[in-house]
Amino acid sequence: MTFASVYPLYVTKVEKKWRSKEELNTVIFWLTGYDEEKLEKQINQNVSFEIFFAESPAMNPLAQKITWTICGVRIEEIQDPVYKNIRYLDKLVDELAKGRNLEKILRK
Length: 108
Fold this sequence. Notes:
2 strands, 57% helix
């Protein structure tokens, strides 16, 4: 699965809940270290999630503070780093769509 195929779904999800694409990008930038230009490049190159996270400039160490259970599995217990990073991003997008304060989402 490519990041470019999922990104529009993230945008739609947050915009349906009255949040903006800019806020979504802020969350992605915080997690991955990408900036606008590098994010657009990854989208245009249609990279997989594996490459998207492997090429991220700097995964935020505060991401480890993200806790969540999905299908009975705690995110902290996921061993596969790509899958774990996907779940981190999913959780941040969910929090944004649910109206959580951006400062809390970014674990400030």
